[in-house]
Specification:
4-stranded antiparallel sheet; alpha+beta; 12 helices
Length: 309
């Protein structure tokens, strides 16, 4: 059965290996260059320039590589579309399942082998891509201090592995239930995008209750350097009313107006997730998608063994 699975999907494996090889070459070569420029900039500048000022110097002319890294956001979805969705749906579309299910191999074993290899391939592929992007993003994380923010968070660490796992199992479940390849592809795209937006925009920030603190008005680079994820920032007057456009006291000009605002009793209320929680959030998000994946695998097996019995 394993040999049959390999024969059926070796073309997809070859395409995935070629794509991963090309991505690895691009990211490794550009990453080595960016890291060298970053270290040279630190050697000739001040370490306090991190979190902002070194960006134009280090990343000048590297926009193409940033676009490639951003495009890796779509990698899990592609895995779900072209690995997961056709896995069962194509067999039913082409009626080859009828021959397979009348042999000595049970449908449960047939699905177990196919799903196991698909999941392993997706996890390994996603882990390699995530490791490459995390390493490549090292200078950017040090300079911009935004690895906790949506977009950066979604392509680094272990969370992308969870996305790949969820995408491939979602594709398998969609193909098992819908039984047609093209509709299964469409359903995979719609559900994956919907779940990702829901968790990224509304659920992730509530994994752990955020921290709320009152700070003097103005920028706070020391807070930024902690890689915090700022959720909201308001200015609060002493009376307890939030004001969008506070009146600057007479005599405040230029950079001094922040001190004047502070002297007038205004405080900036900041709600954020501390940077120390970054890996906890990565682990929670991976766990959420892993649990969803387990549920989808169970649905696929139940549908094949019960509904198609």
């Amino acid at each position: 059965m394993t040999w049959l699975a390999w024969r059926q999907h070796r073309g997809q494996v070859a395409v995935a290996v070629l794509a991963l090889s090309a991505l690895s070459i691009v990211l490794v070569l550009s990453g080595i260059h960016i890291t060298a420029v970053y270290r040279a900039a630190l050697a000739t500048g001040r370490p306090s320039n991190s979190c902002g000022d070194l960006g134009p110097q280090v990343f000048a002319g590297d926009g193409f590589f940033f676009d490639i890294v951003t495009l890796t956001l779509a990698a899990p979805l592609l895995i779900g579309m072209f690995w997961g969705a056709p896995l069962v749906a194509r067999e039913i579309d082409q009626s080859t399942h009828k021959l397979i299910w009348t042999q000595t191999v049970t449908r449960r074993r047939w699905l177990t082998v196919k799903v196991t290899w698909a999941v392993m391939a997706a996890v390994v592929w996603g882990a390699v891509v995530a490791a490459l992007v995390t390493w490549w993003s090292g200078p950017e994380n040090a300079i911009d201090c935004t690895r906790f923010y949506p977009g950066q968070f979604d392509v680094q660490g272990i969370a992308p592995v969870g996305y790949c796992l969820f995408a491939v199992t979602l594709g398998v479940a969609a193909g098992t239930v819908i039984r047609r390849t093209i509709p299964a592809l469409a359903a995979t795209v719609a559900v994956f995008a919907g779940v990702r937006v829901l968790i990224t925009e509304f659920v992730r920030q509530r994994f752990i209750p955020p921290v709320t603190t009152a700070l003097p008005p103005g920028p706070h680079p020391s807070l930024l350097k902690q890689n915090v994820w700022t959720l909201s920032a308001h200015t609060l007057v002493q009376a307890g009313h939030v004001v969008s456009h506070p009146t600057i006291p007479r005599g405040c000009r230029g950079r001094a107006h922040f001190s004047c605002l502070s002297s007038a009793g205004l405080r900036q209320i900041v709600t954020y997730q501390p940077g120390s929680r970054y890996w906890a959030f990565q682990g929670i998000e991976f766990g959420v998608y892993a649990l969803l994946s387990i549920g989808l695998i169970w649905l696929s097996f139940w549908w094949i063994s019960r509904r198609d019995a």
